Amino acid sequence: MRLLICNGSPRGKGSNTALLLKHFTDGFSACGGNSVEVAYLMRTKEHAAIAEKARGAQAVIIAFPLYADSMPGIVKEFIEALGGSQPKSRSKKQKEFPPLGFIVQSGFPEAVHSRSVERYLEKLAKRLNARYIGTVIKGGVEGIQSRPAYLNRRLFMAFRSLGRHFGVTKEFHPITMKKLAGMEKFSAISRFFFRLLAPTGLFDGGWDKILKQNGAYGRRFDRPYQP
Amino acid sequence: MNIVILNGNPDPKQKDLDRYIKSLGADLTSRGHTFQSFQLRDLDIRQCIGCWSCWIKTPGLCAQRDDMPQIYKAVMAADLVIFSSPVIMGFMSALLKRANERFIPLIHPYIALVEGECHHRGRYDRYPAIGILLHRGSDTDDEDIAIITDIYRRVAVNFRTTLRCAFTTDRPTSEVSHAIADL
Quick one: residue A43, left, alpha or beta (phi over 0 = left, psi -120 to 50 = alpha)? Predict the structure, then answer.
């Protein structure tokens, strides 16, 4: 299978998206006969060429971090390139698009944040006349590059297994997807503990550490645009 | 009411939305509202690169040097901010989306529970209400409008405010400006 992966992170090669994709492609490439190319959507000038490549692939995966509750602007720009950009120029009959899947990762721990854009992505596949493979949702990803390796072991294993299964079936394994999505929303108990512990500053500790390193802690509540 | 419209129409040759916003602005002004629109395609608005300088290095200030500061100022002084765009491939234009995600300097990195979900804490005491104004493309259906509205309901929660109105340009400007005046 010739797979094209579009990395839609504005952080590009150093992104969390790239790190998760690395494990996905490791699993994918372990199966004989598979080849994968990764395109970086932050290179917006290459969008037309990437769109052309996408049409020639046997499967396409678009992966991105959740930005303001949907896809980053560069990903939307690429989607416009896929569709021939303007709504009124769509009179030409569209060729069939290869099967299309998505990976959405976000900093928020719950999956619910990514469900609305998932609905958009499913519709997008239909709009492109592509078979919709599905959308893998993974929350709680921010910070994975600065935490101890053992905390990421299961996460990376899951992405390798996702890639391996995809390499054989061209599908996302439903159980792995469910495992990665984790909790939809906090349970009542988690909410209770969050409210109980929030005033202690426990959940702000990570931010405070970086703010202090940057000498910006005292300015953390600055309001430069206060009218 | 102080109303700010971000016009995300990327194509100067497609004049429908631009004309609509101009006429809506005239209606709102005649009703005594303050109205300001930003033609995003004429401004230098860069992609958020996720560097987080605005949260961890220069709190509240974006590291990019472009035209966003004038929008930040107008937005924080507004009562209502309307995100407006032609519907392209079932969503807001990339241009509008790019400006939209540059709003993160206006909120705080700390997390709070809002409606039982994790969201960012506010940086400012008050935020303008949010609205959307969409101009249908030839392939736009009601499901597209519902999906965009649903996503912008979430955008509003993350911006520590609420989505107060969702219009399409199918409705006459007089009706829309009337509805806005009633908010």
Answer: beta
| Extents of the domains making up chain B | 2-181
Is the ipTM value over 0.90, yes or no?
Answer: yes
Cβ separation B108–A127 shorter than 8 A? no
Show the beta-strand stretches assigned E in B79-172.
Answer: 80-86, 107-114, 117-122, 129-135, 163-168
Residues of chain A found within 8 Å of residue B154, distances taken between Cβ atoms: 69, 113, 116
Same domain, A133 and A208: no
Other CB atoms within 10 A of residue A221 CB? 12
A227 falls within a domain: no
> Tell me: the pLDDT tens digits for A147-195?
889 999 999 999 999 999 999 999 999 999 999 999 999 988 988 888 8
Candidate from B101, B116, B139 with C-beta closest to A185: B116
Q: Which CATH class name applies to B2-181? A: alpha beta
Closest by Cα among B69, B108, B99, B91 to A204: B108
Whether residues A87 and B140 touch (CB distance < 8 A) is answered with yes
Task: Say if the Cβ atoms of B97 and A70 lie within 8 Å.
Answer: yes
Question: Which residues in chain B touch residue A90, judged by CB atoms under 8 angstroms apart?
Answer: 138-139
Q: Residue A112: which domain range?
A: 2-181
Determine the residue of chain B that is closest to A225 in CA distance: B73
Contact (CB<8Å) A76/B97: yes
Model pTM score = 0.95
